[in-house]
Amino acid sequence: MDVVLEERKVRRIRKKLIQISNLEVQSSSRKLNEEETIKVEKKGPLRVELTNLLKNLEEIMKRKQNSEAAPDLKNSPTKVAKSSNSSGKSGRSSRSSNQAQQEHDAAVAATVEPTSSSTVAMVPTPDATIENNPAADVDTNNSGEDEIDGYVLLPTTTSLPSSSTVVTSSVPSSSQTSSGQQRSASGSQSSAKPPDKSTETIKLWRKRSWTVDELEGHEDRILDCDVNIQHNIILTSSCDTTVKVWDLTTGALTHSLRGHTGPVTGARILIWQPDLAATAVVAAGAVSPTKRNPEEPLQVTDVGAELKNSKLAIISGSIDCSLKTWKLEECKAVNSIYTYNGITKLKVIQRYQYAVIGSEGGKLEMYDMYSGRQVYSQSMHEEAVTALSVCEKEDKMMLASGSQDGIIKVFQVLGDKLRCLYVSENVCAVNTDTSLHIRPVSSIYITETGVVYYGDTGHNMKMLDWKQNRVLKFANHTTDQGFTDAIDGTSDVLIATGYDVDADCGQMNIYRARTDQIPQYLATLADNLTDRITVMKVTESVSGTVCIVTAGYQLKIWRSEKTVNRPGTRDNSTSIQGCVLSLGDSALIDSGTEDSDLEDRILDPDTTRPDLGSGLPIKKGAGFCNCSIS
After folding, report:
1. Which of 138, 238, 373, 485 has the fewest CB atoms within 10 Å around its CB?
2. Binning pLDDT at 50, 70 and 90, where does residue 8 land?
């Protein structure tokens, strides 16, 4: 009974801290009222109370485990407990039992020598108890893929359902060791099977080391970011009405672009190639505003004359209803388009030299940045566009959008028009034991295969199989509270941001995308010093160097080279290694709604929309739209 009461108190405080975090984000764009201000001021006492409750709950669970294990110690599986001796956000776990440590070390030493992939344990919050249970169940869909070079990543069972537990464990399994001995004994009788691409991807991303640099220069929350490794620049836009350009190698601020009168909600780097873009638009069957015949020379425009010798153009959009084109060399705006609606999201289509914007009024619009003309405008959502993603392929160009009312749409870009392929109506959840709630969409990402991933105000991520009108939910947090504010990826992996409400820290979860099932969780990046991450951009060079730019109230660069550990680029650089949470091992739970008691609902009403789960019949062709809107 004590456990139930303590867990209920923990859930209630976590929910309040989540609300406070949202208010802190909103405070950058609007003034909080008196009631909201008082609620934010309670953050410190609430966090202290949460820490004490988690400690008490941990002690209760320890006593319960000890009492259950006491009757039969010989036959019980070996358990190794870890606890943190440090406080604050950056703790390190340590063994609480010397005897268990010696037994564990002896078992490992008998089978393998320590290597660079040996264990790394991190506990962002103090006194978190962890079990490594070799007998735990492994997902049958992933168990074969988790075995790498004779090692198997053991599932982690936590005594507390808390995202503060971060563990990396690399221990050879007994079955894998015996099979390895049989292979070595057979010698020339059989040849080793070459590892497939998926195994190499798992191995690479779990062994990567990262350097983290923090940049300073903005005076308010950052709303968007972009990065280009080839041209060595980072681009950010902020509530402070500025667009800033940074040197990717040194982290130095190189340009500050001023001219907007409101928060700059979007900023993108456009590779300036107007000749190729005009030809591509005509080839797609569209009428280019600047070139109607591919054989004719490109018409010179004012923007084209200004950017004649430029390799890059900077595009920015703002709530002030302006879409600007900047000449980087002179730090000046060469064109400004009035959009009549505040811009909430901005993307670019490199092939067409288009800017795609989502507006406060729910419109999707496309602009030719060479001519400065609007080529497309249509009201697509009833409420503000809150998420936008573009995927450029040689044979097809796709666009996905999400809105404040929770509706997702998928489009095919056909030159100067959008063809609506899908609208999320009567969507059913594949997970029969969970509910699907319509919530404001906070992030969206469409892959080269057309699969759509999105996050909302719930703690789970969603994989939208829009061709079948179904949603698959998978865990992005280890508690029932959290945010998925940003999603991006490379050709191999999917990366999503998360928020540890217990430690008040942002983190990134890395997955291997799969078209026929939910992504496979690989690792988590967290330095335990990063605030909530609201925007993120990922890019990978030809040589395999990965660069992740994260921002919110802090701007950070996370870098990892494919083979060599790269030293930090600045004096305050830190080095980290990816860790593994228990995301893939815990049962999928809803976002706190089914666990909320009556008191929670009276004091803090649930803002989720009605349930649209499996109770609704699946209509044939539900959600599909084959119209071409021009």
Report:
1. 373
2. confident
